[in-house]
Structure formats: C-alpha cells, structure tokens
C-alpha cells in the first residue's frame, strides 16, 4: 500500500472519529438540556400545586369543611400525577379553635391527614400549654386522618406550639407548628409538607398559614 493511500485512510478515520465524537457530545448536551427543561417544568407544576392548595383553603376557610375540601384536592392531584409515574405525598396538620375569651377554657381541635404514601406507625401530638396532655395514635393508614383536641386558657394573646411526631417504616420526623392565639378571635392554622417525586427530581416544601375566622 502506497504512503499516500495510508495517509488518506488515516485522514478518513480521523474525520470519522471527530464527527462521531461531536455527534456524541451534541447528543449528550441535548439530553442534558431536555432533562433540565423537564425538571424546570416539574418545579413550576409543583409551585402551581402549592398555590392551588393555599387557594383552596382561602376559598373554603369560612366553612366547616376545610379538611375535606383540601383532601379532595390532594387526592385528585395524586391520581393525576400517578398516571405520569410521579408520586405526590402530603402531610396536613390543621388546628382550629372558636373565639377566645380571656380566662376561659378554649378547645383546640387538631386534625392530621396522612397522605405520605404509607402507614404512620406511631403519631404523637403534644401541645405546649399542657405537655402532659399529649395524645398518641398507632397505625394511621395512608389516606386516613387522626383527630385530637386540647384545652388552653389565656388572658392575653400568645403563641403556642403544637409538636407532631410521626414514625413511618422509612422515616421519622418531628414538626413544631406555631399556633397563634388572640383573645376575641377564632383562628385556623394549616401546616403542609408537600412532596413530589419523579425519576428526574424531588420537589418538597413545608409551610403553614393562619387565618382569622369570622
């Protein structure tokens, strides 16, 4: 084989390798860009879900059916995302009390809604007004709720703390939720731990909001 032919063959091989390498790099970049856009869209969708949850509370907080309305929304979102192989889990804690009169016993009603995707093996609730009056539940299944109540008595505006401890097979958490109390007012406090998980990313947000009831 002549020297010129060898150089020509080497040149063809080199060009072929360069083209293949460039194509591979371009494909990698395209895939990375695609994944980045998909994660961004998921993040935006998660934010929309968060906003919709708050909107649902703001629309219905003047009724006595807030938890049920919120549960309907969470269940609907979970079913829709499941068709796209995306998991949506949620823990909701709601407290509500009637108008507070100075120096009078007032009942605080607490609801914990388990949408975490598995059974809460142990759930413990304690209220800072009287820590000895804590309440414990076992085997709170997914899509089920636990209801409890506590009593407080105050002569002035104050912030109490509701401590929620829960144990799952895969995790255990303690959440401290501020419950503001104002004499002459009835209030609702809602705490959310929202989680959206796909093969691309996990999006999570914890937040709470307090409303003065009419």
Layout of secondary structure:
Elements (H helix, E strand, L loop, with lengths): L2 H58 L5 H17 L4 E11 L8 E10 L4 E8 L7 E6 L3 E9 L5 E10 L4 E10 L4 E12 L4 E12 L1
Antiparallel strand pairs: 1-2, 1-8, 2-5, 3-4, 3-6, 6-7, 8-9
Helix pairs in contact: 1-2
Explain the overall architecture.
The protein is of the alpha+beta class and 214 residues long. It has one domain (32-213): Immunoglobulin-like, CATH 2.60.40.10. Helices cover 35% and strands 41% of the residues. The strands form 2 sheets. A 5-stranded antiparallel sheet has the order 5-2-1-8-9, with helices on one face. α1 packs antiparallel against α2 (66-82). The longest helix has 58 residues, at 3-60. It is elongated, with a radius of gyration of 27 Å. The model has no long low-confidence stretch (mean pLDDT 84).
Structural domains: how many: 1
Q: What is the highest CATH level, the class?
A: Mainly Beta
Overall radius of gyration: 27 Å
Query: Kindly state the mean pLDDT as a whole number?
Result: 84
Reported by name, the CATH topology is Immunoglobulin-like
Low-confidence stretches are: none
Short description:
With 214 residues, the protein is α+β, with helices and mostly antiparallel strands.
Which features does this protein show?
2 helices; alpha+beta; four-stranded antiparallel beta sheet; 214 residues; Immunoglobulin-like
């Amino acid at each position: 084989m002549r020297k010129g032919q060898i150089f020509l063959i080497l040149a063809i091989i080199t060009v072929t390798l360069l083209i293949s390498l460039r194509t591979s790099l371009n494909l990698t970049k395209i895939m990375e860009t695609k994944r980045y856009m998909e994660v961004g869209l998921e993040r935006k969708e998660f934010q929309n879900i968060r906003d919709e949850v708050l909107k649902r509370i703001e629309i219905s907080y003047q009724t006595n059916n807030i938890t049920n309305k919120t549960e309907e929304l969470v269940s609907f979102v979970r079913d829709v995302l499941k068709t796209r192989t995306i998991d949506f889990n949620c823990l909701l804690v709601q407290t509500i009390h009637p108008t507070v009169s100075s120096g009078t016993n007032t009942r605080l009603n607490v609801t914990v809604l388990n949408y975490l995707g598995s059974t809460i093996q142990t759930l413990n609730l304690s209220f800072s007004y009287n820590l000895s009056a804590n309440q414990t539940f076992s085997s709170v299944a997914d899509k089920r709720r636990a209801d409890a109540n506590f009593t407080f008595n105050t002569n002035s505006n104050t912030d109490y703390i509701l401590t929620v401890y829960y144990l799952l097979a895969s995790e255990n958490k303690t959440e401290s939720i501020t419950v503001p109390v104002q004499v002459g007012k009835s209030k609702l406090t809602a705490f959310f731990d929202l989680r959206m998980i796909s093969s691309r990313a996990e999006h999570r947000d914890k937040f709470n909001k307090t409303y003065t009831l009419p």
